[in-house]
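To the team - calcium ion complex, inputs and output below.
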Amino acid sequence: MDKTINSSLRSWLPVEKGSDFPIQNIPFGIFRTGVNSPHAATRIGNTVIDLFALAEHGFLEGLGINPGIFNFKYLNPLFELGKQSCRALRKQLVLIFEDQNTAARDRIMSENDILFDEPAVHMLLPVKAGDYTDFYSSLEHATNVGIMFRDPAHALLPNWKHLPVGYHGRSSSIVVSGTSIHRPKGQIKPADSEMPVFSPSRELDFELEIAFITGKKTALGSSVSTADAEDHIIGMLLFNDLSARDIQRWEYVPLGPFLSKNFGSLVSPWVVTLDALEPFRIPGPVQEPEVLPYLKFKGDHNFDIHLDVFIQPEGQHETRVCHSNYKFMYWNMAQQLAHQTVNGCNINVGDLYASGTVSGPTPDAFGSMLEIAWKGTKPVKMPDGTERSFINDHDTIIMRGYCEKPGLRVGFGEVVTKIMPAV
Ligand code: CA
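Output:
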């Protein structure tokens, strides 16, 4: 078994009970302080560890990694080294920070440029995604949306159980947690109107998703099999795919979402590696009817990741509106990547592939306000007595995700999105 995920490991850095970032996690992110340029980092507990400084002080020698890789504003060059190098780096970081290594502790504590308190630093967008795909892989979400947008009798379109439906999204508007987003304006067609109107969206929504990042490119014309797919996947992060339902409803026929989805999609700042998620691998739902040969797979490719969404109106406490789990996804990452490339489409390092809204089978596990409030018919009460069918101006949406089993918790932290009025 991989020693880095052994639940008995402890770090000499403090880790609070219930932290998403024990020494078994070792995620990767990009941060800056008030004085430094952006550097690559990892995190243990609430301590952000500057990987560039660590390398400059000689702690990462022997890995064959040029320290300059960590002195860059995105993780792409690190991931480009490949999964084996990232794995070796994680192992080295565990060796440095495990509790027996008092020599490393004493040396690191004597420097003032390696360890930072998490609240005192700015986390930046971790990867530059050249391309972004948004899948639609939750059976429950696709069924719910089909019932509401189309026809309850034919909620699921005929292709849905045969291929992981997706579309190519826009990467320029993918931003890091904490970025405020203005309510988008666009064409909407009110039910009681013959003609469309131009207006701020009246149905601004979130979509609870998890995205994976590719760490290995392919050549145009080649395909990735389900067996090889995870060699290309470096890790995952939380993804809030903001959606304007009223704009979407009017524009999406026949080519799918366009301006209803590209005004801001937010990612959590830490890329959690598949290696760290290994203890939480589980089987996915049974796929019936049988899929075509290129979508068949061996082994377990789903992950047991608890996902929560909270709405925090300004000046109030947060209210949980959803508790879902990534394990419900019908199509897994290996199948998504195999499908993405089956026609010869090439992929690049840093590309981002979002799961689609992660809805579970029960109403409390629905991953969007469209479903939670069921098109406005079941609004959710906030602490001040106001109701939400969608997101109001000045509301903050908080998504959290974590895996947990006895003695081990590995999490993603959070992705926070504040909605500002239309401009
Ligand atoms: Ca989506």
